[in-house]
From TrEMBL, chains A, B:
One of its GO terms (molecular function) is carboxypeptidase activity. Belongs to the peptidase M32 family. This is Metal-dependent carboxypeptidase. It catalyses: Release of a C-terminal amino acid with broad specificity, except for -Pro. SUPFAM superfamilies: Metalloproteases ('zincins'), catalytic domain (SSF55486). Keywords: Carboxypeptidase, Hydrolase, Metal-binding, Metalloprotease, Protease. It is an enzyme of class 3 (hydrolase). Broad specificity carboxypetidase that releases amino acids sequentially from the C-terminus, including neutral, aromatic, polar and basic residues. InterPro entries: Peptidase_M32_Taq. Its EC number is 3.4.17.19.
Length: 492, 492
């Protein structure tokens, strides 16, 4: 048969996906319902599963199947499918097992101690564990680079954002860095809530479910639960999102829900015929983030949606209708204010946090700077981009994120690339859909139908570049992101 | 090293247990939180896991390891451990793969169609699917029997209740059958609730949690959730029980919770040093059931506990304090009434349902009767034991249970054996612990400490016979069960 090897590959990756399914559900359980006493045995079971998955990913017969599949008579989808399987296989097999193990151990130790060291602002203690993580990550980057003719950092970036490179990022982020500090100054506005309120969690949950339904979340194939750190997990047939509620405030929980709903709708609408194959998965981290940020930033922070949110809030929290009138929620949701912490940053200052991290991790992985240089560079770049000093404040400076502690270098750019892609999707969509009017009439179907057709159904069938060109007519255009920010935040 | 093969066996069975952990959590999720649209992909993932577990259980190198371990210098615990591993291995490897597959397919088909056929009282439709299940189960029983010098039925019984045989069951159940019908007549009492009430589920959950805590459930290592069919699942480090609430009534949900708490306390208190090995698991189905029935029947249906329940009910449902006074709850919880359905039966009539099923499945598997004979035998035995006819009523007669549909012959005796073991544990415990007084003072610790020492901590280190003798001084003694029933139900 002409597609025999291809079929064997399909079976193998479907089998992998079945085990990934078990991992996804047990991870979700770990973050939501597992009693704390279950942690040790769960960790053991998950470690066993990880070993098994690694065996499947590096099964010796795959090399030959990929060779044989090359000569088979495959259609376009099958070719794209083999390409993504092969990419997965390369990512998994290129590193020597000892390096994977050494990095995993160093990363676990660094992350574990970081949880205490960060609280204690203990940079020097952290540095001792961090330097081996960087050294092993550099080794990883060099091995990945040598098999792919990229720079070391680009080889790491490629894990999360295939097709992206630092030449393009330097250009994109360099552009942003020329106008962002001025824009932040123009847009900056204080916002301080001057009231106390009590929003019952049960009511917040009802509102969250209503918003999810409005945004197209399919409850027959997913759930909303609570966890300390909100996430989107589960599988594409059973997508589990979480949020975190506070009683004094409901807007943050709702924005979290809306953000994760964007991730979830992407997952839920991936093509079911390819569901268990690498080609049937989301295109990249940045495209994934573009969907959550489309929902959160392009839709939910628009004046029309904020008016809708205000109306629904008055229904669920009638006592605080006056506090939650549209103009107050706009003041809260469209505030701009330079601050130390990335995860709390607003839409305008967020890219500054990402650019700073990108420049440092790029130079670190390429060996152009050393770990010990980071605090000084952090302080310098924070001052340049946001006008804030982090001198001697490691806790709220270079020690604030978990990403680097286990060597996940190359991930940070996804956040701001996602914001840029989202702005570009919105820009194109607005040519054929009256988005404000759809929001006002509470019919978001044309909006998520567009995303479904242009992005969700495409899965990994196209490269990010081709996906963008087919959806928007052009590759990533940073000027659209700039216009979006100007339009929303620089009205005066 | 003198224990090298033993250590390899330990590693192998620990690895199996890690995958069983994933299965337990994903099964729990399937019954509690999974959205219905997730069912298909979950079924695929679970099937993949079952295949993988079967591979591990039948790994070719195990035979040699068991041979080598025989000559190793093992202590008593290690010897018991090898024995249980070997038992697990034999159960898994003795059947040819084609038979396992054929039975699984026939069973799935029979069970699937039974769900409709039962509703439609369609015995003849059911019989078509059931006959192949019986034929394959007979084949299974013969293969199991031939490797162990048992009768075919005893070989099936041995899966669930190692050490038990039909000679002993004939004697035990034969004894019961001589006095039970008369006792049922003596004890029979109508109970019909003559009020309407509304018990909010949130309050029932609070009461359930309080009762679980009282009974020694460790919430750091477990949870209570809801599902259509109550069960005890999860792992011994993370034990998940479920119940089902109705708003018009709270007693059944609480009895379900107490029953599953009995199962859960056994699981939670298995020796952690052996947690992942066959020898560290619960001894048998009947011993497991003895723990849930100890809690439900010996403790929770005692007058002292019912008084306690009445008091707590008046706290959580003050509106219905009069309805739930002790004497009313006793009338409900100690009612005796012959009825058609096993799962709704009371403590006195329940053994009749089990004896009937035992006699039929024994003769069926041994080839002494045929499937088509079942309805007539059912009607006959129901008349003899309970004085009720099931003529032409297959739905509430021989088609009421799920057990036979997939060929789980040999399981039914566990229920009544469990009730007998429970009565015997209580009888012994009462010699050193004033159980009524402990319940009155709401301190059940001495009770579950006794169970912990005598049963839970023993796991599968002893045979059921040795466990009984060590705990109670004698093997199973049916007269204790009889006395218990007489004492509680034949006071007049
Ligand atoms: Zn996100
Ligand atoms: Zn039970």
């Amino acid at each position: 048969m002409a597609t025999q090897s291809y079929k064997k590959l399909v079976e193998h990756y479907q089998s992998i996906d079945n085990f990934e399914h078990l991992r996804a559900i047990c991870s979700w359980d770990q973050a939501t319902f597992m009693p704390s006493g279950g942690a040790d045995s769960r960790a053991e079971a998950m470690a066993e599963l990880a070993v098994h998955l690694h065996k499947l990913h590096t099964a010796p017969h795959l090399a030959e199947l990929f060779e044989l599949a090359k000569d088979e008579n495959l259609d376009t989808t099958q070719q794209a499918s083999v390409k993504e399987m092969h990419r997965t296989w390369q990512l998994q097999t290129v590193l020597p097992a000892e390096l994977v193990k050494a990095k995993s151990l160093a990363g676990a130790k660094c992350e574990h101690q970081w949880r205490i060291q960060r609280q204690e602002n203990d940079w020097h203690g952290f540095l001792k564990n961090f330097e081996p993580v960087v050294a092993l990550s550099q080794e990883e980057a060099q091995i990945r680079a040598s098999s792919s003719r990229m720079t070391p950092y680009d080889a790491m970036l490629d894990i999360y954002e295939p097709g992206m490179c630092s030449t393009q990022l330097n250009q994109l982020f360099g552009d942003v860095a020329t106008w962002l500090p001025q824009m932040i100054q123009t847009a900056a506005q204080d916002y301080s809530p001057n009231h106390t309120a009590q929003y019952p969690v049960e009511q917040q949950e009802l509102l969250a479910h209503e918003l999810m339904a409005l945004l197209g979340f399919n409850f027959n194939h997913g759930r909303l639960d609570t966890s300390v750190h909100p996430f989107c997990g589960g599988t594409s047939q059973d997508t589990r999102i979480t949020t975190r509620y506070g009683e004094s405030e409901f807007v943050n929980a709702m924005m979290g829900v809306i953000h994760e709903t964007g991730h979830a709708c992407y997952e839920q609408n991936l093509p079911q015929s390819l569901a268990k194959l690498p080609v049937g998965k989301a295109r990249s981290m940045a495209i994934h983030e573009s969907q959550s940020l489309f929902y959160e930033m392009q839709i939910a922070r628009s004046p029309e949606f904020i008016a809708l949110l205000s109306d629904r809030a008055s229904h669920y929290f009638p006592k605080y209708a006056a506090i939650n009138k549209t103009q107050n929620l706009i003041a809260q949701l469209q505030r701009v204010e330079p601050s130390l912490i990335r995860v709390d940053a607003d839409e305008v200052t967020y890219p500054a946090h990402v650019i700073l991290r990108y420049e440092i991790e790029r130079d670190l992985i390429n060996g152009d700077i050393q770990s010990k240089d980071i605090p000084q560079l952090w302080d310098l770049k924070m001052s340049q981009l946001l006008g804030i000093s982090t001198k001697d404040n490691y806790k709220d400076g270079c020690m604030q994120d978990i990403h680097w502690t286990d060597g996940s270098f190359g991930y940070f750019p996804s956040y701001t690339l996602g914001a840029m892609y989202a702005a570009q999707f919105k820009h194109t969509m607005a040519k054929t859909i009256n988005i404000p009017q759809q929001i006002n009439s509470r019919d978001l179907k044309p909006i998520y139908d567009w995303l479904n057709t242009q992005i969700w159904q495409k899965a990994s069938l196209l490269s990010t570049q081709d996906l963008m060109v087919q959806a928007t007519g052009t590759g990533l255009d940073v000027s659209i992101f700039k216009s979006h920010l100007q339009h929303r935040y620089c009205k005066a």
